Amino acid sequence: MFKALSISGLCPFRMVVPSLKLQDLIEEIRGAKTQAQEREVIQKECAHIRASFRDGDPLDRHRQLAKLLYVHMLGYPAHFGQMECLKLIASSRFTDKRVGYLGAMLLLDERQDAHLLITNSIKNDLSQGIQAVQGLALCTLSTMGSAEMCRDLATEVEKLLLLPSSYVRKKAILTAVHMIRKVPELSNIFLPPCAQLLHERHHGILLGTVTLITELCERSPAALKHFRKVVPQLVQILRTLVTTGYSTEHSISGVSDPFLQVQILRLLRILGRNHEESSETMNDLLAQVATNTDTSRNAGNAVLFETVLTIMDIRSVPGLRVLAVNILGRFLLNNDKNIRYVALTSLLRMVQSDHSAVQRHRPTVVECLRDPDASLSRRALELSLALVNSSNVRAMTQELQSFLESCPPDLRADCASGILLAAERFAPTKRWHIDTILRVLTTAGTYVRDDAVANLTQLIAGAQELHAYSVRCLYSALAEDISQQPLVQVAAWCIGEYGDLLLEGSCEETEPLQVEEEEVLALLEKVLQSHMSLPATRGYALTALMKLSTRLRGGSDRIRQVVSIFGSCLDVELQQRAVEYNTLFRKYDHMRAAILEKMPLVERGGPQVDGEAEESKETQCSETALVSTESQASKLLDLLDLLDGTTEDAQPSPSLDPSPRGTLVHLLDLPCAPPPPPSIPDLRAFEREGLQLSLSFVRPPGTPALLLITVTATNTSGADVTHFICQAAVPKSFQLQLQAPSGNTVPAQGGLPVTQLLRILNPNKAPLRLKLRLTYNHFGRSVQEIFEVNNLPVETWQ
């Protein structure tokens, strides 16, 4: 009767649902049809687990923690089980220790202070003679051991390295590797045992020992010097692996223990780097490995690739380096895309040191350009551009131009820029250089760099014998296609400068071309009216029309009408230019021919030329200041009178020269600027693998709180620096404004630098601190550098 009342709810007793076993919990969670059902099951079970932890049942604690670890693996919070892990680790039962150590590896890390509480438990377990318990403690220490724990337990781990049990020694070696990575100053503790461990025949112990020595050599110069004495022993171990084999159970696809071979080769690469004696000891062995390793399986290719890297890093003989390049050449013929990618990346790193050896595989590299895999074709493009020199520039440029016509859009910018840089560096003749740039602009004009237009116009202006040829080629290209904006800009500039040569019809280097004035004007008007034309392109076309007004016999009225239309253009730059040209037509038609003369040749000046130009400018300014006796206001009235006509209030000053050219001199005869402030010395802020970053400073006289910093990136290496981004940060008391950079590719071999302007406002004149972050791709690697510039000149803020 009492039981019936309880079930019917008349009694306050309620039935307690028992906790699930781990297997039942897994089945119920997997059987949940919705995420809400899964959360409900886990919440109920977590409540049971908490209750069990509170009750403190020692026999059931490891089962509850095992369920909690499964819940943690599903992504649900399980932090309330951290202290239970410590209790289980301190238990004397192995079943409790096993689950406790597993929970510590999953639930604890350096961010929780609780991980320090298990240090004593691990120390006690390491000193016990039970191998299974020692293995658990070592695995936990190597997984989540912090620097403090490593310092406290390094002595215990060092004692375990020489125990007779191979099971414990193997785990102790891996724990020592973790300790060296966490605390490099512990290297001296593990130096003596390593020499003894190299004599072991156990695979796991020998592999772990080589890994431990590698970590020691990478982090300690003293360890590197110490272990160079064991190079002959390592060479003998590797020779035994190659010739007689180590053990059949560790062979993969006929290659004897490839993992151990690869690890020994990596260690030899570190020990032989910049060391003649060690390199000479391993030369014969590397040749033997390179010639005897089977390349039909991936394991053999892995060993060969590590051999190649070792040969290229140490001071090997030239014949061995050629053998390494030939191995990479064979990799290029492999059907596996990963192997071909690795070969292209390695050849790209070696092209500077062994250029002639890499050149032998140029046809294979060019074939990789057309691989459908995007990463392979990009690597092949970078390597092809690095292989271009003065002897093969014609053939390589032809191949690259053929690839440019069919390459994916994401590669066109890099390909076009690379061709232009190669043509600029190795062009055999000016005509070939012009033809190459024209073909690139015709094929992928919208993908070229911003300075391509300026470079080509300067090249054409400097080749006086090719003016007629250039203007005819550009006119024909423009008549066929006006969508490529850089091509249209260059063509409009060239037609405006040398339109008279286009109409003469006398050019021996091209086919006879009869062009009428009306056709030229109609083509430029078409450019002005096209919806594809950018504002800058319309500016080029408008200026070209204006210049043609002095070079053509007729058509001035038509040109004047077109120019007047753009006087009401929405674009401010075009509107201003059109208004000025209209004023030139209406009021100063007698000066039009002088103002619209052909552009003089502007040489690319280095620092010396720039310095001479500055000296000349300062001299002219000083002479003008001495000769001039008029006030600045009077000269300003003269300038306004010249542009707007005579006024009633101010009479124009008498002209010293009645000729139009003399009037132009008065227009340019402005007051001399005050002497510039003392210059601030430039600063070299960064240098790595040929990439250099320098800072130049200017403080405008009118605003002393403003500092202008020009960041200039140059590249003297053999590969372009692509996707270059420079970011800056200053303290909160400063105001920083970053202008857009001139480009995102720093050309190789000292090409045109990339510049970026930083405007920093320092109202409090506080000492300037500048932090820079550089991200870029170089030699096929993505690089990020963050550094602070603290040695800025005091003139930048005082």
TrEMBL record:
GO terms for cellular component: AP-1 adaptor complex. It is found in: Cytoplasmic vesicle membrane; Endomembrane system; Golgi apparatus. It is a peripheral membrane protein. Pfam families: Adaptin_N, Alpha_adaptinC2. InterPro entries: Adaptor_Complx_Large_Subunit, AP1_complex_gsu, ARM-like, ARM-type_fold, Clathrin/coatomer_adapt-like_N, Clathrin_a/b/g-adaptin_app_Ig, Clathrin_app_Ig-like_sf, GAE_dom. Its main location: membrane. Keywords: Cytoplasmic vesicle, Golgi apparatus, Membrane, Protein transport, Transport. Signal peptide: none annotated. GO terms for biological process: intracellular protein transport; vesicle-mediated transport. Residues 678-793 form the GAE domain. It comes from the Eukaryota. Belongs to the adaptor complexes large subunit family. This is AP-1 complex subunit gamma. The lineage of its organism: Eukaryota, Metazoa, Chordata, Craniata, Vertebrata. The gene is AP1G2.
